[in-house]
Amino acid sequence: MQFNNDVNNIIKKGDGYVQTNRTCYICNKESDKGIEILGSYICRNCEQEMIDEEGSELKMEYYKSKVKSLWRNNLS
Ligand SMILES: [Zn+2]
Fold first, then answer.
1. CB neighbours of 69 closer than 8 A, spacing ≥ 6?
2. What is the pLDDT of residue 34?
3. DSSP alpha helices (H): ranges in 1-76?
4. For residue 46, which of 9, 26, 31, 73 is within the disulfide window of CB 3.0 to 4.6 Å?
5. 5 in any annotated domain
6. Residue 62 is assigned to a structural domain of this protein
7. How many domains does the chain contain in total?
């Protein structure tokens, strides 16, 4: 199964992540590892924080409002 091997290699190497230094939409820090959502860059730290269920409620509200404005910007 060549296809499955390729997918596994990509996941291991982390090639799904953007490899250039960009400024994070949420924390405004530069990072070379992150994801792009709706054309805006979100660093890996913030991505992890967002999916971390142990995060504080206040933090979650902040992220939610950021992501919401991201959506709004792209829908308008
Ligand atoms: Zn960030």
1. none
2. 86
3. 2-13, 44-51, 57-75
4. 26
5. no
6. yes
7. 1
Residue 14 CA to ligand 1 centre (angstroms): 18
Q: What is the mean pLDDT of each run of 10 residues along the chain (76 residues)?
A: 55 52 91 84 86 72 83 79
The Å distance, Cα 3 to ligand 1 centre, comes to 32
Tell whether pTM > 0.70: no
What is the rounded distance in angstroms from the CA atom of residue 16 to the CA atom of residue 27?
21
CA distance 61 to 36: 20
Write out the residue range of the structural domain in which residue 54 sits.
Answer: 17-75
Surrounding ion ligand 1 within 5 Å at CB are 24, 26-27, 43, 46
Residue 2 CA neighbour count, 13 Å, CB half: 0
CA atoms of 34 and 43, how far apart (whole Å): 4
